Amino acid sequence: MNVSAESIVEALLSVGYQIEQWSLLGSGQNSIAILANGEWVFRYPLHRAAADSMELEVAVLRSVHGRLPVFTPDPEIFVEVAGLEWRVMAYPFIAGQVLGVDQINELSGSTLSRLGKDLGRFLTTLHSTPTSLFSGSNLRDKDGNQRWASFTEDVRGILKPRITSSDWKRSNRKLGKSVEKISRFQYEPVLRHGDFGFGNFVFDGRSRLAGVIDFGSAGLGDPAVDIAALSATNGPGDSMIDHVRQAYPLTDELLQRARIYRDTFPLQHALLGAKSDDELAIKEGIDSYLNE
Length: 292
Fold this sequence. Notes:
This protein is of the alpha+beta class. Helix content is 46%, strand content 13%.
């Protein structure tokens, strides 16, 4: 079923939702997000896997609502809508802005220190969320061996045909070493965000953290995954860790795991490019992966 932002809005209007104005917030491989009346965010999954993921996302968001130190999406609506194949999620818009790379690079040391404390408190609370709050949701370790076996299979089946033989041999060799290390990781699974980077932090007008969004990858897993995303190259990098450690207990073992996860990010980017037929993303991902 082919859907667009326009068709989603038409379906919502047909069942009584009062949408006077709307704009497209984002459209990716997994979902479409629409801002309605400047007040509500409607998100619609684009395939079965995304729909299943959204169901878990709603369970996660409802379990942490009111527990975390800054705003997170509060899915007050998660319903079937006539004319749409999957359920629609909607939550009140979190006011603020996501900073671009140039804006992030301009943040002062004192601002980063304050931000680190806020992010550290957020992670401390998130990672200590009792699993009993999930109301029987399908909980499993999203960072275990099954996830990496599936990732490796996708890389070989989808990405390999899109790159040169030389790049594939080097990428496959490097990935094999990372997966072998990851297979030996030992940790207690916690509720982690899964994509805890600057692209999902909402700031107010004074560059203070106002909210954290996009829990589409959230679930039980290794807390080091969030540390890996936090220290990725779309932000201050490793220096952010020093600010976060003021409010979050970082161990050498956790940091070591985070670095190994982070090493795979460019290859994950290239794989997403292959899945969405984005040649630039494939090239950027492979070049970064092989040159690190």
